[in-house]
Design a protein that fits this description.
The protein is α/β, with parallel strands linked by helices and 449 residues long. The chain folds into 2 domains: 175 residues, 3-Layer(aba) Sandwich (Rossmann fold); 238 residues, Aldolase class I (TIM Barrel). It contains 14 helices and 16 strands. The strands form 4 sheets. A 6-stranded parallel β-sheet has the order 9-12-13-14-15-16. Strands 3-1-6-7-8 form a 5-stranded parallel β-sheet, sandwiched between helices. The chain starts with 5 loop residues before the first strand and ends in a 5-residue tail after the last helix. The protein binds cobalamin. Cobalamin binds next to helix 1, strand 7, helix 4, helix 6 and helix 7.
């Protein structure tokens, strides 16, 4: 086996009741692709969710600042969900296009597949089955969020030859050697994010936006969130210079205008991280837009950070409020206080952010949550002049809320991750109905779903 193996990276199909490309890209996989490329591997990439496939209906990359609808094909619903009155679909390119693309690249020595939502695993399994059909004998390795949160399930049900849980930087060299015999020699410290090559976004046909990750991990351990499981240990930050260099590269060379922060804790310790990044961006005078669909911490938004965000070109700001219950028993997150939320909203308004630009995610479908509580929470946010955005709760194994979710759920969520799909509102005591969804959307009166 040569020391320059051929590696195919695949972003799998999504199987779901609903999916929309809200600035979603497989950043982990594209990071791995960049590392492998810098080690001399021949790297190819197929994105099963590619909205810009040559055979796909034409979409303007800059429409909706980089977001857009996936191509979709209705498929049968998973066992146990036949009674849900919604269409279940495979989101992404039709199977024939994928098969054609698999046979168009040079035969790889190994295929690396990523995974995002745990309950999207049927799409991962179908992707791997198709790869195996087109490329018999080629080992398939699965990593990513589903593989990390449900490794045993993935070993039994994904069809992958190897399931690699956790951070690829730790296990990638061993896996590549095991599958291809090649020894990776990156020539840089693989554990230092300042020395990584930038994620290989250029492997895409079109770069409608750039996802940015300036930190890894999160200092908080919110009861519903898996961040501390996916990134255990202290939060790691990149240097402000490396972040600004990355933005410069994509904007100046590839003319990208939309940049999307994937960080869990972008504004934490802002003085030493976000503020210098924002000041450098402002100095550059670029005509670019920033978005934070993964939410920023309410407590970290003050007059300084809000002003810097506005001056740097932030257009879509999402706050992680979760609920409007501010009592001492608030266990959901970092115990946001009412006055902190009010300060955040006032600072954003003062900086010039409009209602449309500013949204607060409100969790919907928590164990034991009453519909009335949801309605009141939305009204509370709307009264303060920003947009409430429903964030439908998905139970995640290993989180503090998981036991409550298991106890409350209408489904046996321990038996199959497909039942944790947030579209089912699996922890509400009333069965799924369009009436409930319509009411929730009406209360929120938001443009996003
Ligand atoms: C950015 C992000 C988003 C982005 C989109 C990301 C995407 N690609 O689709 C946005 C903001 C749009 C988003 C939306 C949502 N998200 Co989100 N998101 C994240 C977040 C914060 C980071 C993911 C990421 O890119 N990380 C950075 C990269 C570098 O890491 P990575 O992909 O994990 O890759 C590393 C390893 O996994 C591994 N690896 C990856 N692939 C491979 C492949 C191989 C072969 C190997 C060996 C290794 C490997 O190596 C990489 C480098 O270390 C995670 C939480 C977290 N901290 O991870 C939640 C998370 C994935 N999201 C989550 C949720 C619930 C949602 C929403 C449903 C929220 C809601 N309720 O509305 C929506 C729905 C998304 C949709 N498209 O329908 C949950 C998933 C829950 C679940 N059941 O799986 C998470 C875990 C957060 C949480 N609540 O705990 N999300």
């Amino acid at each position: 086996m040569s020391n320059n193996p051929t590696i195919l990276c695949v972003n799998p199909w999504i199987h779901d009741f609903a999916a929309y490309d809200f600035w979603a890209r497989p950043l982990g996989l594209l990071e791995i692709a960049a590392i492998l490329r810098s080690c001399g591997c021949r790297v190819f990439y197929i994105d099963c969710t590619d909205r810009f496939h040559p055979l796909a209906p034409v979409q303007r990359p800059d429409a909706r600042h980089g977001r857009g609808p996936y191509i979709k094909t209705p498929i049968p619903k998973p066992a146990g969900l036949e009674d849900i009155p919604r269409t279940y679909s495979r989101y992404g390119i039709p199977e024939q296009w994928f098969l054609h693309d698999l046979l168009s690249v040079p035969r790889p020595d190994v295929v690396l597949v990523t995974s995002i939502m745990t309950y999207w695993y049927p799409g991962v399994a179908e992707t791997i089955k198709t790869i195996k059909q087109a490329l018999p004998g080629v080992p398939v390795v699965l990593g990513g969020v589903y593989a990390s949160l449900c490794p045993d399930h993935a070993r039994m049900h994904s069809g992958a030859d190897i399931v690699a849980a956790g951070d690829a930087k730790v296990n990638l060299p061993g896996i590549i050697e095991q599958c291809t015999g090649a020894r990776l020699d990156p020539g840089f410290d693989i554990s230092d994010p300042d020395f990584f090559p930038v994620p290989a976004l250029d492997l895409q046909r079109i770069i409608p936006f750039v996802p940015l990750l300036t930190t890894r991990g999160c200092p908080f351990s919110c009861t519903y969130c898996a961040s501390h499981i996916l990134h255990p240990g202290p939060m790691v930050r990149r240097s402000p210079e490396s972040v600004v260099d990355e933005i410069a590269r994509w904007h100046e060379k590839y003319k990208v205008r939309d940049f999307v922060f994937y960080d869990d804790a972008l504004l934490v310790d802002a003085e030493n991280h976000f503020e210098p990044i924002a000041r450098s961006i402002i100095k550059k005078g670029w005509n670019i837009r920033f978005h934070t669909p993964n939410a920023i911490h309410v407590r970290e938004v003050n007059e300084t950070t809000a002003r810097l965000m506005r001056d740097a070109g932030f257009e879509t700001v999402r706050l992680g409020l979760e609920t409007d219950l501010f009592g001492n028993d608030r266990t959901l997150d970092s115990k946001v206080k009412l006055h902190e939320f009010e300060r955040a909203v006032a600072s954003l308004k003062l900086a010039g952010f409009t209602r449309k630009m500013t949204g607060a995610y409100m969790l919907v479908g928590l164990p034991n949550q009453e519909l009335e509580e949801i309605k009141q929470g939305f009204a509370f946010v709307a009264e303060r002049g920003i947009t409430p955005i429903p964030a439908y709760y998905t139970p995640i194994p290993g989180t503090a809320m998981w036991p409550d979710a298991v106890a409350c759920s209408r489904y046996d969520i321990e038996s199959d991750p497909v039942y944790t799909n947030n579209a089912l509102l699996p922890c509400m005591d009333i069965p799924f109905s369009w009436d409930i969804i319509t009411r929730i959307k009406k209360w929120a009166n938001s443009e996003e779903d």
